[in-house]
Amino acid sequence: MDTVHISPKRLAWLRGELAAWQADGLIDGETAAGIAGRYTENRRFALERLALVLGAAFLGVGLLWTIAANYERLSPTVRFVGIVVIWLVAVAGAELLASRVSGVLPAAVRVFAVAAGGGVVFQAAQSLHVPEGGPELLGAWAGGALAYAYATRGKAPLVVAVGLGVGWYAWWSAENAASHGVVACAMLVAAVFTTALALLHEHWTPAFAAVWRPAGVLLALVGLFIAAFPDEDFQMTGALLSGGAVAVVLAVLAAWRSFSGRGEFRPGGGLAEISVILMILGAGALLAVWDPAGTTTSPTGAGLVRAVGGIIGYVLAAAWFAVLGTSRRLPGVVPLAAAALVVFVTTQSFAIFAPLFSGAALFLVLGAVFLGTGVLAQRGRRLITEVSR
Asked: Per-residue pLDDT tens for 228-253?
């Protein structure tokens, strides 16, 4: 029996209908699984979607750049009124398009509206003589974009809002600390926050869970990647402590909301997902505060243990996300985990073998490691897929 490829939206609708039919007793579980098994998500890359979204983003950047380039030539009133008019026109145009057509075109205009909204925030701050150079304005931009995304139920502005929000929190956390370890911990805290929101949105707004969860995966993998490199200047900041406390409370709420009452700990379960993301946060924090150079007994041995522990932790985290993506049928999560694993292993291999080999020998060793990692990632993906069926 041939498999039918359909769009993600239609596939989600079909699964919802099958669940409703099964709940009403019209079909049994085996029949529902058989029908769902005939359909799979169409993963073909849509070039027109990329062109439209990138075009809107570039227009937004160009707009802000144009205002900055002509800043001194325009009066404050003209600058503020002009950017507000552009923002309002973009918002109205996006909603008008959304009411008449569906697809990526309204999303692209909403992305442009978010960019114009950033211009409104920065221009208003300038008019009110708000000090620049800090993360506050970026945070205000992120908050406005987040409110706009929820008001319009738009996934595209939510993606932009998440990126702005993470940038604001990382900047705020490391503002007075020249430490990449602080940035890594900020990303891991944000990963816990976004993962908890993904689980909560499965009950509130399922479409937004498809944005929050991949964001959590990406932040966790990037945060662990950065934390793997030793940091002699790490220091705990108030932003990290307060953000971590909020993230943990939200994670506990999400775990309680997802708890089935039977204590079931399975790869696709919310309790398991929250538990693992908290363990990843703990592992990343341990790597960030662990400075092998400060070890008086054996700095070399401590550095080796730290490097091996970081590699093992990262491999386990990537494998977990691959299992999660396969069991929950999350689009893009499995390729993201595999790509992150290959990049991490290759980077660590270069750091390990560069002092031992040189010239052609170094490239031969790295090439062998790269190919071996790719083969193992491919075989692991196939194994996970077969086990999860």
From this structure: 888 777 888 888 899 999 999 999 88
